[in-house]
Amino acid sequence: MGLFDKFRKGLRKTRDEGMVKQINETIESHEKITDELFEELEEVLIMGDVGFPTAERVINDLKEKIANDNITSVAQVRETLKDIVAGVVWGGSYLALRTKPSIILVIGVNGVGKTTTIGKLAMRLKSMGRSVVLGAADTFRAGAIEQLQVWADRAGVPLVKH
Description:
Layout: H1 3-17, H2 19-28, H3 35-47, H4 52-68, H5 74-90, H6 114-127, E1 134-135, H7 144-155, E2 159-160
Parallel strand pairs: 1-2
Helix pairs in contact: 1-2, 2-3, 2-5, 3-4, 4-5, 6-7
């Protein structure tokens, strides 16, 4: 199995078994855009461990965008939600690193892609000219430090580990 096959398999697992699957199922279970749809999507986000404030902000942004763009199709809700979540992950004030140095703490339940996200975030920040240092703190999972080392190597950033 090649490297890209491994990536595809990992992404398929995330899409087919995780929060993305639950979001898709929630959207597909509704024929119309209703308050119930928003409530269910917010619940999926909260249960997906994004936190209440972030889930609330995403849903409020979704409602606003749907109203402003006169979106009437439930299918368009999925694409709009994708754009909003992408904005949260990569955009503006959601990740305002105002102090030097800045620290980003990533926490969440097992298997949701924290390490992968850390690696991608390190690459993104480094490509923006930031100085990045990763710290390995997930010492309870077998292979966690080694996996983070691979991402640190890919991003070309140092890793502090024991």
